[in-house]
Amino acid sequence: MKISRFVGASSRDVLRQVREALGPDALIVANRSVPDGVEVLATLEEPPAAAAAPARAVAAIGAPAVPAAEHAAAGLEAAIGALRGTLESRLDGLLWGGAAGPGREPLRAGLFRTLLDIGFSARLARAMLERLPASLDARAAQAWARNELVTHLPVLASEDELLAEGGVYALVGPTGVGKTTTLAKLAARCVAREGREQVAMLTTDNFRIGALEQLQIYGRLMGIPARSVRDLAELRSALAELGARKIVLVDTTGISQRDRKVAAQAALLCGAGRPVRRLLVINAASQGDTLDEVAHAYRHGAGEDVAGCIITKLDEAVRLGPALDTAIRHRLPIHYVSVGQKVPEDLAVARADELVDRAFAAQARTRALYAPSEADMATLWRASGPAAADQAAQRRRHWLAAALSPGDCGRAGAALADALAWFENDPACVQARAAWRRHSGAADAPCPPATPLAAVRSAFAASCDRYLLALHGEAALGGVRSRGASLQAGLMLSDRGAVLGAAECGLHWPADVAAAAGMPSRAGARGAAAVARAAALATGLSGVPLVHLLDATDGPPWHALPAGTAWLARSAGGLRVLHDDCPVTLNAVGKMLGYVPAGRLPAANGVLAPPPGQAGAAGEAEIWASGTEVAVPRRGGAPVALRLICARVAEPGRAAPRQLFGLTSLSASEADAATLARWVAWQERARRAFRAMAQAWQALPQEAGAADPAVRVMLAAQLGAACWQLAHAPAALAMEAPLRGALVQGRRLTAGKLPAAVLRLFAMLEMAA
């Protein structure tokens, strides 16, 4: 078999060359894009050599050398192409320095170029850059952009709810986007879920030859009716006859977005006598401007707005950004995505994280031809010189340095600027200061986020890789006015271990005090409060992938939390479960499993950490993870199948590792055992953050929140979260000197004094502003 190489300006051109050289029976071996256009490797399959001449047999002996040489040449060419791309990227980077020497692409310019390269519009890219947090490197900025897109990309919330509700769904869109094939795929999913007696198909396409026949073939294969309707009267009659069927899918005529018939088609569907929800089918391989025009035309054609969209031909699209950009800007929830022609395999429910990751992966594989390169951006956007320092900021830094470090303000000025830069950008500290400003009546305070959840949502994109964690807990409060009460809150954590603030805080009193004053009772309220808090977080953080970290005292989450809620519950080792159909305790299961390394638990190296080598200095702990499937017995019902996570934490100075257990609703595809084991270890440590909230409660002045206890609770929770972050984040070590300076001279910075020091620092920052 001889393999020949053909190169042409387009696919049509190169296929013409193949037909002319090898004939219509040529076999395409491989194809790819090259700088000159399209490259195709083709061959002509030879018949069996039953009676080959001796001369041909001799010639055939050397035949394999030809393909091998050509494959070697192709591999060498690919390596040269990769080297060329690397050199071009390096040379592009040199252009940023200009005459002054080599430089680096500015962060915002690089992120802007990346978003354009993926296919997102300049309008969306500019809007994202306006919200880009400061102090991010290139990798963190790309992770922030990815999380922002995941958060804002609208997708179908639940396919089960969509199919359970039923109704009439019409697929609309321009010609050639794959409406009929997508309708057949969707019908097959509905038949698999609801049964063939509950599904029917209609078509209003009377222009395309064979449209009805194609749909009827699909209908016969699935055992469901497929009919054609010509006008409004026939549509109403058909829907009336099919009224007993739960789901009716309507295929429509493909109409150009510039055709006035778009409005007539929308009016036809709106007058069907039954509510018809329109799903716009868009081609992922289309240009962004075309998709924007399609969305405008079909959304504002006539009648009710479209309910969402289905993205087709993902397998043909080089860039997925235009389709995602259209869905984001036009607020079109993506219900399904189609990745091929197979019915019904190539139709899947849309997931925001998978679509965004696919868009970024496509950008990394190939270099865009119609988007500016780094060299183009360097030519148009030269790096500007450093701006002059703000005189007001200089005066502010000198005043603070003199106040916090008397006698040493010269050397302390630069260090203080770096420390305050971290302090003013850390999400937990920002939330605490915003709460203090809001309730202390700072005159020149900027407008803070409307709610703590808005601040958490804003911090999610820059601080989290994939999930936002909500640790539920409580702390007993002391003092004469709050004796016996408890502060309950949700501590918001990133999946990197950083505290982002507190949310959904509440104060609960003993049963006798609560009964007399008509306030929430502490007795038996923790589990119910956790459920209510989880519901409030799900509402306030809709679209953010949230995992609830619960404790055994919160009650069984598989009973209380709604189905579909992601949770991880700490469990006692003595809990009895079923493992391999045998009753056993978690301790026994943990001894039977094998463990793998899961990373390290960083030491608390914040402002309260002793110097390295001093007594009491902590080191990093090693985490080992394992997981298996268990079932929890349920009285009066079948056992609940759950996933067990076992974590062993080996701390320096301890003879034996600590054994921790967690039960979770997350599958292995959503989070592996190593990740969940780290979360269990973080949960065990971060539970002490609620003690910091109780200490912050005592540090607040009595007049704070005297009229409204909820004010004092929120201040205490946010201040405690900030103190926990200051005590544990390694980057917070630079804040030790400013916080010691905020205390009375000679006083040692301890966990009990830290809230008061933070409050004094807030006040000094306001005076220096």
UniProtKB/TrEMBL annotation:
InterPro entries assigned to the protein according to its UniProt record, in alphabetical order: AAA+_ATPase, FlhF, FlhF__GTPase_dom, P-loop_NTPase, SRP54_GTPase_dom
Gene Ontology biological process: bacterial-type flagellum organization; protein transport; SRP-dependent cotranslational protein targeting to membrane
GO cellular component, one term: plasma membrane
Entry keywords, A to Z: Bacterial flagellum biogenesis, Bacterial flagellum protein export, Cell membrane, Cell projection, Cilium, Flagellum, GTP-binding, Membrane, Nucleotide-binding, Protein transport, Transport
Intracellular or extracellular location(s): Cell membrane
Residue ranges constituting the SRP54-type proteins GTP-binding domain according to the UniProt record: 166-361
GO molecular function: GTP binding; GTPase activity; signal recognition particle binding
Main location per the UniProt record: membrane
Recorded coiled-coil stretches: none
Domain AAA+ ATPase: 165-335
Family matches, as SMART domains: AAA, SRP54
Membrane topology listed for this record: Peripheral membrane protein
Keyword Repeat: no
Keyword Transmembrane carried by entry: no
Similarity annotation: Belongs to the GTP-binding SRP family.
Chain's role: Necessary for flagellar biosynthesis. May be involved in translocation of the flagellum.
The protein, known as: Flagellar biosynthesis protein FlhF
Organismal lineage: Bacteria, Pseudomonadati, Pseudomonadota, Betaproteobacteria, Burkholderiales
